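Work Package 4 report. The design task specified in the project plan requires that, given a folded chain encoded as structure tokens, an amino acid be chosen for each position. We show below one input record used in the internal validation round.
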């Protein structure tokens, strides 16, 4: 089984990348299957038994198998999106099914075969933090290229600038990226690196790089159309300007 894991952080372009990879119809159907250990929402979607109906090993094995099926779809490739804060969740599931392995990389290999690790990162952490906080506040997480709402998680609210929250989020996102780099080094992993700006500028080219690394057919130019668009707007720009003013005056 060919597999890949998109190792990302929130608002780094992972939804765009997952949608495009799924649209190739040869590179799996990546999604966040391990956000909270064995996710009850996914478990219900897949029609799995309730957690209390099976022992821990059988339940984890069933969840893992269902995740692989969902992330593979009709292709021969399994795709998974994984935020750094969820790494422990997927490892806990695998460790229940395959106990006694001595490294995280060995655990992931036991579950998913040889894995291509794709490190998706966003250099401008302030822009990333602004995007995340605005999404949390407004409830709007993704829009389509035509401006229509694609994903809304709560009722509309006006965004509110919060310097302390922004500063803390920038530090948190920096920490997540640093933690990925440390983990790659610890596990002897050399990931395929994809940067948010490059993905935004030429998404098909970045998808083609991943397909080439997986050994599957690359998309034809013009065949893939991004399903989501940037949410950055004048409010985002105002927040970023104000942030640097506050950094200069407040430290």
């Amino acid at each position: 089984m060919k597999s890949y894991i998109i190792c990302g952080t929130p608002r780094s372009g992972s939804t765009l990348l997952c949608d495009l990879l799924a649209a190739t119809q040869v590179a799996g159907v990546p999604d966040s299957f391990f956000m909270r250990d064995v996710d009850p929402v996914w478990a219900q979607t897949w029609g799995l038994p309730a957690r209390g109906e099976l022992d821990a090993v059988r339940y984890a094995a069933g969840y893992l198998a269902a995740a692989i099926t969902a992330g593979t779809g009709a292709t021969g490739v399994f795709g998974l999106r994984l935020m750094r804060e969820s790494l422990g969740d997927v490892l806990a599931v695998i460790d229940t099914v395959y106990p006694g392995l001595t490294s995280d990389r060995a655990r992931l290999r036991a579950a998913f075969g040889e894995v291509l690790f794709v490190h998706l990162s966003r250099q401008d952490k302030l822009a990333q933090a602004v995007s995340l906080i605005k999404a949390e506040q407004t409830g709007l997480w993704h829009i389509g290229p035509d401006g229509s709402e694609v994903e809304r998680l709560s009722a509309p609210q006006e965004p509110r600038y919060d310097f302390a929250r922004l500063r803390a989020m920038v530090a948190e996102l920096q920490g997540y990226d640093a933690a990925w780099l440390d983990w790659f080094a610890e596990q002897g992993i050399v990931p395929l690196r994809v940067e948010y700006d490059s993905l935004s500028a030429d998404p098909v080219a970045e998808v083609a790089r991943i397909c080439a690394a997986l050994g599957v057919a690359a998309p034809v130019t013009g065949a893939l159309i991004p399903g989501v668009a940037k949410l950055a707007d004048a409010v985002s720009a105002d927040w970023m300007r104000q942030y640097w003013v506050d950094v200069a005056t407040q430290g």
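The chain has a mean pLDDT of 91. Validation will be extended to a larger panel in the next phase.
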